[in-house]
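Letters spell out the chain; the tokens describe the backbone. To illustrate:

===
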Amino acid sequence: MTLLDIEGLNVSYASRAGPIRAVISADLKIEAGQTLGLVGESGCGKSTLGKAILRILPDTATVTGSIRFAGLDLVTAEEPALRKIRGRNASLIFQDPMTRLDPLMTVRHHFLELIRAHEPDADEDDAMKRTRRVLTAVRIPPDRLDQFPHEFSGGMRQRIMIALALVFNPTLLVADEPTTSLDVIVEAQILQLLDSIKNEFEMGVLLITHNLGLIAEYAEEMAVMYAGHIAERGPVRDVFKEPLHPYTKGLLDSVIDLETRELHSIPGQPPDLLQPPSGCPFHPRCPSAMPVCTGAFPPTTRPRRDRTVACYLYPG
């Protein structure tokens, strides 16, 4: 069952120098119980796409296209309808829990504030029962309810953020770099936790990350984003085995493993979104660039079953 259906999504930011097109004609689908990994270099539009789903972008952002979720088009939905969905049906895990948790509020008050935002008449005892249940699920001792964020380690603060996102058992979770700045052991624990909760509640997850290893371990599908465009999408196993877009191949070649003998990188850097190159935005860095690549952006084709790619190399 399709849980989230994004079609032709465009997000641009107004600036004094002109519009910054952060997401361009993006198409994505997430099924119930599926993890879709979204990867790409910094500045490619991943976080903007994730925040656009929940409509929590700044006032300078303009959003067009379609985001179908829970029977609504979230692009055109009114704010009262969006407030009913955010935090209840769809939740977001932010990158840095220390900047998202209020240092003047205890864990108890974080949860009470969230629950009463959706259920103003909620009884505190009932709210705390739900809070203890979800804290236990993320392995935070419930007897620490009256402590402040600075009294927890980075990994525990991230678990509290996950618990806040899961308190209403949402059907969709947007995890934006959920393990940033954590050590690899805590990172693995948190991703295993998210994976088990996803399977238990048939939750759809959009996992935004730079870490291709996490995608290989925890996602079933992946989408590769570059300069606001979805360059390639397909099953994780197939994309890792046979990357189609030159950018995807460059990212995978940059991954270090036990057989690595020399380091590889993609030359250059992502383009300025104020003045992106003409045609395919990757052509200045692409080893397979052709004259046609500098004209119009390549159409998205389906050269393999369950695979899409925006590149003039396909279908041939």
Notes: The chain has a mean pLDDT of 91. The chain has ten helices and twelve strands. The CA atoms of residues 224 and 248 lie 7 Å apart. The chain has two domains: 2-88+200-278, 90-167.
